[in-house]
Amino acid sequence: MTLRKSLVAALAALTPFVATSAIAASLTVGFSQIGSESGWRAAETSVSKSEAQKRNITLKIADAQQKQENQIKAIRSFVAQGVDAIFLAPVVATGWDAVLNEAKDAKIPVILLDRDIETANKSLYLTAVTSDSVHEGVVAGEWLAKNVGSKPCNVVELQGTVGASVATNRKKGFDEAIAKYSNIKMIRSQTGDFTRAKGKEVTESFLKAENGGKNICALYAHNDDMAVGAIQAIKEAGLKPGKDILVVSIDAVPDIFKAFMSGEANATVELTPNMAGPAFDALIAFKEKGTVPPKWIQTDSKLYTPTDDPQKIYDSKKGLGY
Ligand code: AHR
Question: Whose CA is nearest to atom 2 of ligand 1?
Answer without folding.
Answer: 114
